[in-house]
Specification:
alpha+beta, five-stranded mixed beta sheet, 248 residues, binds adenosine-5'-diphosphate, globular
């Protein structure tokens, strides 16, 4: 995020962005649920140039035992970027950035999971970023949400994530890489189906009124994502239901 890139052109004469999107449009999203046979639940998700894969295990006995909580399940979330996922090789292993993203993403799911129903258990969520193009933490959360459903883990509802930001003085939805690099602000959030915000971060500067505009836009973005997640679930479980009907 840099605020001094006045030479960067973000909009064409029609007000469209460099990737031809309108300011309030998200990048195309593709979802495939149940892509890994070892995991209890999994999801592959593409969002613009981002490619992520989520795997969920549990609830299962937490190991090592010292991690067990007497009255509830421990929820673990690991966000990891593959070294080949970015142009300059990303350094393998945990970093401050990945630890922070893992922590806030875990907290984004805690309100929708029934951890107290599974004492001493663990619910493990792993997300690998295969290709990064700005917005990987939100893409990862959207994939993890569907992998949790695929694992059959009861939830109060889905979690959907999206970012808004400010580029060239305008508030836009779902920043792409040049917008993220040269824009003025980035505001990723995660939201439950009933509109409760479970993650909010901000990089850059927004005035209070810009912040309000960005918040309204990003919540609308999360609702768009939610519809895409629901459609992917319907597609997955409609085919499961078809298979079951064939077996009868
Ligand atoms: P997010 O991916 O959630 O937007 P950031 O704002 O931290 O998270 O990163 C924006 C983008 O910058 C990433 O999507 C990725 O394309 C790039 N990026 C992040 N970390 C690295 C890294 N270690 N090396 C190269 N590029 C990176």
């Amino acid at each position: 995020m840099s605020s001094n890139q006045t030479d960067v052109v973000f909009f064409d004469e029609n007000g469209l962005r460099t990737d031809q999107r309108k300011p309030d449009e998200i990048r195309p999203m593709k979802i495939k649920i149940g892509v890994l046979s070892r995991a209890n639940g999994s999801c592959y998700l593409e969002w613009g140039g981002n490619k992520v894969i989520a795997a969920v295990y549990g609830p299962r006995e937490a190991h090592p035992r010292r991690m067990q909580l007497a009255g509830k399940a421990v929820i673990r979330y690991r966000y990891n970027m593959q070294s080949f996922s970015v142009e300059d090789r990303a350094r393998p292993g945990p970093s401050r950035r990945s630890s922070e993203i893992s922590k806030v993403s875990r907290e984004a799911f805690e309100p929708v999971l029934f951890a107290e129903d599974y004492p001493k258990a663990a619910i493990d969520i792993f997300v690998e970023v295969l290709q990064a193009d700005a917005g990987t933490r939100t893409a990862a959360i959207n994939a993890a949400s569907l992998a949790l459903v695929d694992a059959g883990i009861p939830m109060r509802g889905l979690v959907s994530a999206c970012a808004a930001g400010k580029v060239g003085g305008k508030i836009v939805l779902d920043l792409n890489k040049p917008e993220d690099n040269y824009g003025e602000a980035d505001l990723p959030i995660a939201m439950t189906e009933d509109g409760k915000i479970t993650l909010i971060q901000m990089d850059g500067h927004l005035t209070p009124s810009e912040f309000e505009e960005a918040m309204a836009l990003v919540q609308q973005g999360c609702r768009q994502v939610l519809e895409i997640q629901k459609a992917a679930l319907l597609e997955k479980f409609a085919s499961v239901m078809d298979d079951e009907e064939d077996e009868v």
